[in-house]
């Protein structure tokens, strides 16, 4: 549900969605899209409200490591050059809001 809502939000913002729920042994990418000249790997985090903190805070260092490994595999599998412009963004959602955090973490 949250990922579908996030995908619709991103489409309205001009992002071209390439893939959703991409799985590899090392991790999952919720949404892969093109935003301008960037290939973007999106992590979607949802909480009913922010009483337990911002949903974006749920993206832990271990999760980041898995996302980066999965992104590298996605690029290899799809013949995307390592020299491409890539970005890792987080879509932090509650019932009442959507927060698009661009460049949420580095992919190195």
Can you put this structure into words, describing what you see?
This protein is an alpha+beta fold and 108 residues long. It has a single domain (2-105), classed as Trna Endonuclease, Chain: A, domain 1 (3-Layer(aba) Sandwich). 26% of the residues lie in helices and 40% in strands. It contains 2 helices and 5 strands, in the order H-E-E-E-H-E-E. The chain has helices spanning 2-12, 61-77; strands at 16-24, 27-35, 38-46, 86-93, 98-105. Strands 1-2-3-4-5 form a 5-stranded mixed β-sheet. The chain is globular. The N and C termini lie far apart (30 Å). The model has no long low-confidence stretch (mean pLDDT 90).
Q: What is the secondary structure topology, with strand pairs?
A:
Elements: H1 2-12, E1 16-24, E2 27-35, E3 38-46, H2 61-77, E4 86-93, E5 98-105
Parallel strand pairs: 3-4
Antiparallel strand pairs: 1-2, 2-3, 4-5
In brief:
The chain is an alpha+beta fold. The chain has two helices and five strands, in the order H-E-E-E-H-E-E.
